[in-house]
Amino acid sequence: MSVKCVWCGKNVEEIQGQATMDTCDECEDFFEEHIDDIAESLNDLLKKNESSSSKPTEKKAWVSYSLITAIHMLSSKPYIEFKDSKYKDLISGDKK
Description:
By secondary structure, this protein is mostly helical. Helix content is 43%, strand content 4%. It has a two-stranded antiparallel ribbon. Helix 2 (35-50) runs antiparallel to helix 3 (58-73). The longest helix is centred in the middle third of the chain and has 16 residues, at 35-50.
């Protein structure tokens, strides 16, 4: 089975009997070197979404939720936690 890097598309070397990463070594190194920049950019997008003066929508709520989740996945601190978001009441856990 051929595995390609999800970021650049290069073939990823498979080693028999080991799990195969979905990123190549070069992209993985780039990500590790720039993790703080990535977190800062995500926080900037979060600030922009949260400071929007347009009518609150479920879409904007999901944007904030997704950005906050991504920032947490990077082990970084989001500008605002979702519990404090002005959009928190627009996402219901009871979708039917």
